Amino acid sequence: MALWRKLLIGSLGGAAFIVALAAGLDHADRAYPPPVDVADIVSKEVLDRDGRLLRAFATPDGLWRLKTTAADVDPQFLRMLVAYEDRRFHEHAGVDPLALLRAAGQFVTNGRIVSGASTLSMQVARLIEPRENRSMLAKLRQMARAIQLERRLSKAEILDLYLTLAPYGGNLEGVRAASLAWFGKEPKRLSVAEAALLVALPQLPEKRRPDRHRASAEKARERVLTRMAVSEVIGEGEAERASAEAVPDRRRQLPAYAAHLSELALRKDARATEHRTTLDRTVQDGLETVAREAAERLGPKVSIAMVMADARTGDILGEVGSADYFDGGRAGWIDMTRIRRSPGSALKPFIYGLAFEEGLVAQETIVEDRPADFSGYRPRNFDMTYQGDVSVRKALQLSLNVPAVRLLEAVGPTRLMVRFRRAEVHPELPPGETPGLAIGLGGVGITLRDLTQLYAALANRGMPVRLGDGIVRDAAVITGDPLLDPVAVWHVSDALSGVTPPAGSRRLGIAYKTGTSYGYRDAWSVGYDGRHVLGVWVGRADNGAVPGLTGYGAAAPILFEAFARSGLAITALPQAPAGAVRIAQSELPASLRRFSTTASGLVATTAREPAPEIVYPPEGAHVELGATTGAAISPLVLKLQGGRAPFRWLANGKVLPDASRRRTTQWMPEGAGFSTLTVIDAAGRAASVRVFIE
């Protein structure tokens, strides 16, 4: 009894000394706890639209220390923590005299330290102001600091500091960082075994690290579970089940999504500790996984970029700047969503859309796919073959070059560029050049973000949408005129939704288009459903050629896989608006059955009487007139049937002298090669043939 009386007197005397020390420190150091700049002590976090962690950045001193509050943590863990570390946390004023008395008694009885008397407040004081040694004076100072903490902070604030600063091995500090590193999840819902391990680790974080000292970690967790069962914080059955659960044997990487966008967020506001984005982590995870796997298949220097957006709001839901940010061989640090490249055929749908809007063609209108000369510009198809007469729908689906250029010549390259500006997209022309027919086949520079923004208008029934930057919610529908009218958009989408999926991909109910730039440098694919739009670019960051790289072969499979693994349900494409219908070719008005151009553009026809028809020379004929033998060139006889006189003939767009009422005339070719012969009758109806002069 005398021993305990002495211990009690000593404890009371020690407590009085600690209070006096606290008062002295309080007077000398009124700012304690010292003012802390939160931006410097916690990791900066980039979050998705729902607050889920996308990426964290280590603190300046290299620590993973995520800001944590009691609301971020499983309540069961909090109960276990307080019960194990500081049962009277909510009653004492920083120092627990009963715990001091118990610890002293155990020391005297056993001759060694059996249990400590550190309260959570004392531990927070040590974490804020680490002591250099473990002397009695340092311990007393820590107690005094704990009393100061209690005077200035609430119990909740002290607990939040512990949850943020407690060490968990290596450079991990705080419960959130530990839970993500050891269990791969936020600490909001921990199992009993996981909670027990997180309670045990901070006492000896290095000696109990599960990845290095698994046995020690298991013993420490077992002690926590046993005490929790005795204290009836958990049931005995729960403790037994938790003991059977394996301790993690490796440290996981913290979430590391959206590298390029995360860096952009930090550059925009370097002081902020949290950066909200419009990304969806599920979408981002799916896109990054697809990009990484596809890059491995395509080769060591090939990179991939993707942009996925909500076509109604413009919010970026997923963005991949490269296949692997840290892959130097792919120049992964370059954000390829913002680099201008040639889009190849990816702009063709807008040419067709403008032609639909102006009533120049219908989907089943016949258009020629044959070698053509447009004032010296001679486009050729990608495979160097020609289909002859094809429907406009098939020409778009097959991405034929000559039909697209024919339509672009009719609608005008400048008008197409004006339409792009309606969507706040400004493709870059080569220096000193004006819009020409080459823009239809990729003769401009455009970024993946801008190309996706153009297609977002197609998914949004023609109304252009400004894509956000992924950080600030500045996306919006662009006011003003539509990019294309809804009927034209429906015709384009109807045709593109019928394009055959790439080999190995299942049909998803999306409309999509591909593009391949000159020299196999860039492969593109952009697709959309009734709500979302996804753009894909494949190529080398150094603009090097990749033999065999095509939009259909490389980018389209990624597009379909990314759509499927994005986690987003496919939204049906919009139904046809009023006035939109696909009419069979035989039922089209005569003026829309065949598209042909003359010097004055498209020529209308009527169905009252037979339209003119060139019967000689026939379409595609090779006519030998001595042009390649050196002999004098003979005139070519031209014959027609039908039509209403007088007739006007054109050769390669040049009007031949004098209109004639005769159905036979002659033309003197200027030399060898392909030529287009056109006749127009008095009713404005036209017919054309292509022949080769030898």
From TrEMBL:
Instruction: Kindly report, in one word, the top-level EC class recorded for this enzyme.
Output: transferase
Write down the chemical reaction(s) this protein catalyses: [GlcNAc-(1->4)-Mur2Ac(oyl-L-Ala-gamma-D-Glu-L-Lys-D-Ala-D-Ala)](n)-di-trans,octa-cis-undecaprenyl diphosphate + beta-D-GlcNAc-(1->4)-Mur2Ac(oyl-L-Ala-gamma-D-Glu-L-Lys-D-Ala-D-Ala)-di-trans,octa-cis-undecaprenyl diphosphate = [GlcNAc-(1->4)-Mur2Ac(oyl-L-Ala-gamma-D-Glu-L-Lys-D-Ala-D-Ala)](n+1)-di-trans,octa-cis-undecaprenyl diphosphate + di-trans,octa-cis-undecaprenyl diphosphate + H(+)
Q: In which pathway does it act?
A: Cell wall biogenesis; peptidoglycan biosynthesis
- Segments forming domain Penicillin-binding protein transpeptidase: 305-539
Which segments of the protein form a coiled coil according to its record? none
Q: Locate the Glycosyl transferase family domain: which residues?
A: 61-228
Its protein name is: peptidoglycan glycosyltransferase
Species annotation: Shinella yambaruensis
